[in-house]
Model the fold of this input.
Amino acid sequence: MAELLNNDKSYSGTQLLAASRIIDRACFSTSIAYVACKARNPDPEACITLAKQLTGCANGMLAIVTKSCTEDFEKVTSCLYSKNQDLSRCRPELTAFEKCAATVSPSPSPSSLKK
Done:
């Protein structure tokens, strides 16, 4: 499983939280397939291909939005750091970041918009 984390950039939990809805929308179908695979297979190796695809999707989305929306991303992560990871207390920053990300990220699937 170590090869899943073998990339040039690692992200903090706060950064992942800030981008979680963007990642969810972009990687929704892969995430569902991975969770279903894990539910069917207790063997960690059984779902490795899907795990790699999901990790790649998340890392790809983070790379795109952090490059294109750097200022907004930094504002929301800074807010989350200072507000004890409470998304509800960083709503204006999160809204601005997600608005920027929507202009650069792939369109989400219709099913992921129902959340």
